[in-house]
Amino acid sequence: MKQLATLIVLVYGICPIASATPALPGLFSDHMVVQRGKPIPVWGRADPSESLRVTLADTSAGTVAGADGRWRVVLEPLAAGGPFTLVVEGKARLAVRDVLIGEVWVASGQSNMNFALRGASTATEDLSLANHGGIRLFTLPKSSSLKPMESAEGRWVTCSQATAGEFSAVAYYFGLELHRRLGVPVGLVHTSWPGTAAEEWIDAASIAGDPDFAAIGARWRAVEDATTGLEDRPADFDLSFADMRLVPDEPGAVEPVLVGEFRKGTLHNDLGGEWSYSWESAPFSRVEMSPAGTSGGGWVLRNAGQLRFGETALLQLSFLKNGNPTNLTRYSGIRFRYRGRGFFKVHVLQPTIADWDNYCTQVIAADKDWSEVEIRFKDLRQAGWGEVRPFTRGALTGIIVEFLPGLQLTKPPGGLFNGMIAPLIPYAIRGVIWYQGEGNAGRAWQYRKLLPTLIRSWRSAWHQDDFPFLIVQLPNFGERRAEPSESEWAELREAQLKALALPNTGLAVTIDVGEPRNVHPRDKRPVGQRLARWALGEVYRIEDVYSGPLLESATVEGSRMRLRFKHTGSGLATLDGKPLRGFSIAGSDRRFVWAEAKLDGDSVVVESSTVTAPVALRYGWAGNPDCNFGNREGLPASPFRTDDWPGLTNDAR
Q1: 266 part of a folded domain
Q2: Using CA atoms, how far apart are residues 215 and 653, in angstroms rounded to an integer?
Q3: Nearest CA-CA partner of 161 in 107, 199, 125
Q4: How far apart are CA 345 and CA 333, in angstroms?
Q5: SS3 for 1-56, per residue?
Q6: Residues 331, 456: one domain?
Q7: pTM confidence score
């Protein structure tokens, strides 16, 4: 958030690639990291037919811009090192400074990849140690597009206490472990969007050409016109606010408190805090103190501009100057006047919520006449996709007014590939870490094909062979069931496990680090470290044990079943030292019952006195299973099943 000036602030967007010649996209900016040991594509814009030469360290290449001004060179691979200066010489000279050569990974997915380090359970300790000059961070702004975007907005920053807090926690812990073990610079490119489905991250042609995904296309066509209009013509908005105040719980008990007394041209409030505005996700917008245009004179706070599809603008109030919480138990809510054209929601902020699932209003539509609204605290609700937390009227930090381009919008299949993956291509990378699946759990059977399609589509677009693609398997979440039952989340984990059939893929199992009531578990350190461990084992070949047990075979031995595994490490074990839990077994009637499981050397033997002729076995098959199987290195086994019987999502498309 940026602090507003007392009277007027105007903020306008800039083009992704500046008009000066030559020009580079944001990926080529100071503090960038270039992938070591691979050819180095560099591209940008210049005047048509302009001659250019690009130099980095001791490698150089020349080219001539095409008739459309686009140009591209590929530099020879370089060893780890730096800092260097990347120089582009044409009609002018452009220098990108403090360039390091090392390992570059893309981190993508939905909310759990987007989850910021400041919200992690170990943030206090880890942020104090986050000054790492050899780690560089790049975050793409959220963008969904009907056509591939050619330039990534944003800038590289050096990892520090000031910059790491807002960065992806999983990506940070992954990169930190690589940097520590490899001893080379690490660049992390973060591109994620909460609440998204896999089909949004796959190129549209791969979705449209597959009959198994026909229902996805049909859902999009049903709402296509409204969203397409925003792609072609961004939504104009122009909203004004006045006389924002806290409403006493009992009339006359306390005086109303002005938290937005804009009439006098001030952005401070009676509690000592002030307003700020974030335009990073809405560059074509402005905030200003505007004449009220009423008989009373004075000023109102006006926010106006354009919002493209996927953009939101955030106007934030901190009740206190230092951002600390304040006790509002004597107040029932907030009342204010508004008018104009556009849509907005009001979030009330409290320190116990760090995953954006704030208590907030429904979308409010404005019109040209002044209206007054009273937002009662008791009527606010969380959306429900984050951690359920009680509303803390005794400890609130502020409010956010979120401006939206429309009432309800649907992101198109391929939209995030176009807006948040295509701009990265063909930047040289080592690989990808991926944390997504919650948004597809209701269609887990289809995800068996969606996830491999996504991996193939990215590899095909990048033209960098089968680069490593490491997947976070969904953690434990939800109510614990007393008896074996079907589970969408178990089916989704199975789909993620089956993606290992593709070459150069990996899986970080997190069945032991979730939170039953929080879809965004805060313990992100082991997630990033397990991804790094797989990379160190399979990609860099310096880690011997990098996965927990994965089922290799299951055989029936009379009334029991014997299981054998890959990735046993120095031996099979229970993670808590107690007897094995989480195994169920079934006969031909397909009715699963809990079973007794025992370690037997390098295998596990499972049986139940009620199933004398077993035909199928499952482990950890639940949203939030009670399971404890792993190896002596402390890495949990992936949940699995030996049957292929229809589950909850087989027909969901």
Answers
A1: yes
A2: 6
A3: 125
A4: 15
A5: CEECCCCEECCCCCCCCCCCCCECCCCCCCCCEEECCCCEEEEEECCCCCEEEEEE
A6: no
A7: 0.84
